[in-house]
Amino acid sequence: MTYLTLKLIHILSAIVLFGLGSGTVFYKVMADKTGDHAAIAVTSKHVVLADWWFTTPTVIIQPLTGVLLAEQLSASFGEGWLWWTVLLYLLTGLCWLPVVVLQIRMRDIAADSLAQGRPLPSIYHYYAKIWLWLGVPAFFGMIGITTLMVFHNSLWS
């Protein structure tokens, strides 16, 4: 695969990963703030679907295309910018994995309590706080990764 094709796939995948992450956070937080149980249940369901349909493929595409691009550039993982990028990606992933579990739990809690006509239990709100706070380092990790990808030649030359 040509360098420009790989770069295009890598960039488009990064846009989807970052954009979708930001969008799902916005819609989930806004739905939770309404207190509208039905809206929370539907939004939680869609957040989980978005993660499976879009985030998961991009989480796989990013390192694959990244490694192939690094090989084509003859970049070494010992280089500062590439090492930091990999480290930030792994740390972001460590935040994302529990977020996925929490999203599934919140989806199920919201759907079950709605179906039974009960208010959302406090555990839902507890999970939502953890979910949001795990997103903070992941968000800044993605900002750092993007910065390193764009400015790596300027930062390490």
Explained architecture:
The protein is mainly alpha-helical and 157 residues long. It is built from 4 helices and no strands. Helix 1 (3-34) runs antiparallel to helix 2 (37-72) and helix 2 (37-72) runs antiparallel to helix 3. The protein starts with a helix and ends with a helix. The model has no long low-confidence stretch (mean pLDDT 92).
- What is the number of strand segments? 0
Order of helices and strands: HHHH
Task: Please give the count of helices.
Answer: 4
Helical coverage, percent range: over 70%
Strand count, sense and barrel status of the largest sheet are: none
> Rg from C-alpha positions?
18 Å
> What structural class results from the helix and strand content?
mainly alpha
**What is the typical, i.e. mean, pLDDT?**
92
- The general outline is elongated
Poorly predicted parts: none
Strand content: under 5%
Report, as a whole number of angstroms, the end-to-end distance.
28 Å
